[in-house]
Amino acid sequence: MRAIREVREDELNELARITIEAFPGMKVDSQEARDRMLDRLSKVMKEPTVHFFGVFEDDDMLGVMRCYDFTMKLHATRTLVGGLGGVAVDLRHKKEHVAADMVRFYLDFYRRKGAALAALYPFRPDFYRRMGFGYGVKMNRYRFRPGDLPAGGAGSHVEYLTTADREELAACYDRHLERTNGLIQMPSHVLDSLFSDPALHIVGYRAGGELRGYIVFRFESVPGDNWLASNIQLRMLIHDDQMALAALLGFLRKQADQVERIVYETQDESFHHILTDPRDGSGSLLAGLWHQTNTQGTGIMYRVIDVARLFEVLRDHDFGGVTAVVRLDLIDSFFPEN
Does the pLDDT of residue 92 top 80, yes or no? Predict the structure, then answer.
């Protein structure tokens, strides 16, 4: 009989095997890499906001997934949102509705916890679209030269941040969260990982003794024979005001002597207005004479799992001053509880 339950720590080896075989691109192809993965999984499993589930028939593990208790800033309210990741099915049990059973369990798990929304990164958007998920805002990948950033803040003082600055960085992110709609509160273990990864660099800007902005980046090699050529992969750009933004962009601009391009992935489609030359170096033209500035992709998808609860979460939100009576005729064939 098929059952879904939390995975025990002594079952992590089987969870890792299923995951590695489902995602060979992870390149876990040595015992050393496997041991590192198991150590990482063991640590994540202990996080109170992360739940490892497996699908079992008798004692056989057929599939695995991870559920995440996220907190989202939805308009003016912070609310629980269920996250899903690491969905993997044993190669011997594909086409047996294992993934569909896991997704239904995940939706019910968070509905019972009081969430109105669920979110995930799809391995195939069409698969989750059929399960009632809708597309979020697209992601834009910009590839620009450091010298195309504005020079206005190039003389501003910035500093490297360390674990001693952890709480200030968290507070800066939280202020950024308050100004947004749809952003996820940063879990503590994700915050810790920013400081534990030796490849990541964190640079911050202070004003009046307060951290007002920061960037997180890593260097990446440029393909070819020139080992001196590098790009910067800009992972986070968080700022409270124009002065902080100018200072951080000024720091990046000063790297032009050793960095060819900065690769920045953001949902801000208007970022190109900052750049003197927003072209991405591809030389591609669209529709005649439209210069390619960035590439786009669809990623995170969302689903309502409790309509009544969603209206309760948004009860104090003013939708443009409009007063209306609305009737919803809702059919949810995949998740009838909705």
Answer: yes
Task: Give 163: exposed, middle or buried? Use CB within 10 Å, 0-12, 13-18, 19+.
Answer: exposed
CB 87 within 8 A of CB 65: yes
Neighbours of 293 (CB within 10 A): 20
Q: List, as one string, the DSSP characters of 249-274.
A: HHHHHGGGGTEEEEEEEES-TTGGGG
Q: Which helix (H) or strand (E) holds 285?
A: strand 285-286
Measured CA to CA, the distance from residue 305 to residue 303 in angstroms comes to: 6
Handedness of CA 289, 290, 293, 296 (dihedral sign): negative
DSSP letters of 132-180? T-EE-PPEEEEEE-GGGS-STTTTS--EE--GGGHHHHHHHHHHHHHT-
Query: Letter for the amino acid at 277?
Result: D
β-strands 77-89, 60-74 pairing? antiparallel
The single residue listed with the structure tokens 């040595």 is 30
Give pTM, 2 decimals. Answer: 0.91
For 244-277, letters b (16+ CB in 10 Å) and e give bbbbbbbbbbbbeeebbbbbbeeeeeebbeebee
pLDDT digits (tens, 9 = 90+) for 5-55: 999 999 999 999 999 999 999 989 899 999 999 999 999 999 999 999 999
Q: Kind and range of the H or E element at 50?
A: strand 50-57
- Digit-coded pLDDT (tens) for 209-232: 999 999 999 999 988 888 888 999
HEC profile for 323-335?
Answer: CCCCCCCCCCCCC
Burial 8-25 (b: 16+ CB within 10 A, else e): eeebbebbbbbbbebeee
C-alpha distance across the termini of the chain, in Å: 26
Q: What is the pLDDT of residue 228?
A: 83
